[in-house]
Amino acid sequence: KCRDKDSHTTHTHEPHDAPRCSYDRDCKKLNDPYHRAAYRHTGRPDFLQPCRYQKGCRDKTYDHRMKYSHGEEVFTKSSSSSAAAAAAAPSKEESEKHESHDHSEQTPCRDGRSCRDISTDHRKQFSHPSTTTANRAGNKSKTPCKFGVKCHNFDTDHRADYSHPDKS
Questions:
Q1: How would you class 81 by CB atoms within 10 Å of its CB: exposed for 0-12, middle for 13-18, buried for 19 or more?
Q2: Which of 57, 79, 100, 112 is the most exposed place for a label (fewest CB within 10 A)?
Q3: Residue spans with biased composition (Basic and acidic residues) (predicted)?
């Protein structure tokens, strides 16, 4: 909760009841606005500050992306802070991927939500708004992923085996 609401009248948001990231200070996803909205980190604000250039920003450095947001819609109208808190703890597979993946090398994909490249190499190189490419025909017959819209596993095999709801 905000401790000094009276002096921060321009900062308006609901209390952020999100679980603490299991990696906390060692987290490598501090530059991911979706991760930052879903999990709390010691010594870090719950929400990123908006960058003045938003989607037109050319600064792709990890340090800049760790501090500023660029127009990402981290909470849709149907989601809430309790929905973020309901996100389950990462699976063993997701944890291993989190540890081994170097997020400082990721650049936001220019196609964003419209990206159709689900290859593992592309997903390792570029960051994407959560769950967009898996919502193709055939999702209805797949087992729903337990992480739903909060899933960060873009592995081709995972996306082929599990369905992910569309955020729109």
A1: middle
A2: 100
A3: 91-124
